[in-house]
Amino acid sequence: MIVTFDGPISASAYELLGVAATASDDDLRRAYRLRLRQTHPDTGGDAALFIRVQRAWELIGTVGARADYDRGRAGSAARWAPDATAPTTGTRPRARSYGQAGAWRRRRYRDLLRAHLGHDVSDAQAYDPAVVRSAPWAVRRMLADALAEEATAAAVGDLGIGFTIWHDVATGSDAGEKLDHVVLSPSGLYALMSEDFGDAVRFRQGEAIGEGVGGSTPIADLLTRMRSVARAARVRFGGAILILPDEDLAQAATSLGSIRGVPFVVVRRCALRTVLRTGVPGARVLGGNEAFDVRSRLQAAVRVL
Asked: Do 298 and 235 touch, CB atoms closer than 8 A?
């Protein structure tokens, strides 16, 4: 599992431990021990934050790991640029894929950044860490979500020819009202949303909560957009999946049960492939002939942005 803590809106490993990037090794070690005590669930701390602190230490707790992390942070622009997440070629069969994950949010990011700066910028400038981190949170969040969608596409792209995936599926007159991914798999038909809130996420009464989530309602939004696609294509989804960065969840997969009659699970990105292969708990499995019919209906009705 790769944990970076260097997304456009996420706290760095240093910030999670409460020290400057120039802190000495001894100060770093003392800060880590203090943060462990502060966040430990047995003393009233948050379990997801406790895990994030531990992972931050894994990244910068040794001289070698810290040097690798610092080099990686310096190269953030290369990882955030569009070609950094282009699919790689290989011998493994790839899933059928339509649309380009993250494309709409990247375009929107550039529009928002241009409006913020008052002028256009080159690709190199648009993804320069200093430029990104100086932008308003809403602008950085748009880029973070684009990266999240691209990471999901990379994770599921080589699941095999038994899978069909549509990215950036339009669900309304407003382009922002989209479904990030629709996945037809041997285990069922699923609606997926890829998010990055830059902070630990918890759940209450069938909705995501947390400092980064704010007043947004990602689970309700996902279900509403899923139903729009279901009506347009005359198909029935078996379940819904919210995908978050590995470091933002306390568990690899959390079943929220049935929400509005739809089996719902929240997963770390590292667990997504397994969930798609085995199925969302409680989801309806498609028969062979039905799967062909569902694929045809979706192909005829889906519009990718």
From this structure: yes
Q: How far is CA 197 from CA 172, 209, 211, 268, in A?
A: 24, 10, 8, 13
Q: What angle do CA 274, 280, 285 make, to 5 degrees?
A: 105
Domain ranges of the chain: 13-74, 80-301
Q: Is the pLDDT of residue 86 over 60?
A: no
pTM: 0.85
**SS3 annotation, 214-265:** CCCCHHHHHHHHHHHHHHHHCCCCCEEEEEECHHHCCCCEEEEEEECCEEEE
For residue 21, count other CB atoms closer than 10 A to its CB: 13
Enclosing H/E stretch for 178? strand 178-185
Q: Whole-angstrom Cα distance, residue 269 to residue 56?
A: 18
- Long-range contacts of residues 197-200, Cβ cutoff 8 Å, at least 24 apart: 197/9, 197/244, 197/248, 198/7, 198/8, 198/9, 198/10, 198/11, 198/141, 198/144, 198/248, 199/10, 199/11, 199/248, 200/46, 200/48, 200/49, 200/52, 200/248, 200/249, 200/250
Using CA atoms, how far residue 100 sits from 105, 159, 230, 259, in Å, is 11, 17, 21, 29
- What's the CATH superfamily of 13-74? DnaJ domain (1.10.287.110)
Closest CA to 281 of 297, 302, 265: 265
CB 250 within 8 A of CB 48: yes
pLDDT tens readout for residues 231-258: 999 999 999 999 999 888 888 999 999 9
